[in-house]
Amino acid sequence: xxxxxxxxxxxxxxxxxxxxxxxxxxxxxxxxxxxxxxxxxxxxxxxxxxxxxxxxxxxxxxxxxxxxxxxxxxxxxxxxxxxxxxxxxxxxxxxxxxxxxxx
Length: 103
Known about the structure:
It is built from two helices and no strands. By secondary structure, it is mostly helical. About 0% of the residues are buried.
């Protein structure tokens, strides 16, 4: 069950990252196209603005992906901890039954 949630989280994270990347690229491309005819705007400033927008989009995307993997790893770790505890308790209970020891 834990691995199922991990795959769902990873898939959702990847979809969000792709969507954010596409949105950032299309937004910066749309801004660049609309300001081409303007002689008041310096091309270096526009390039810097577009690069900054892409950089911020990449930063946000990286953050989302990182948090998704972190959450997935936590889910796996907690699931493994729970399973290990249950197995340990089962062995303990079995050993107590064999020796006649009470809890």
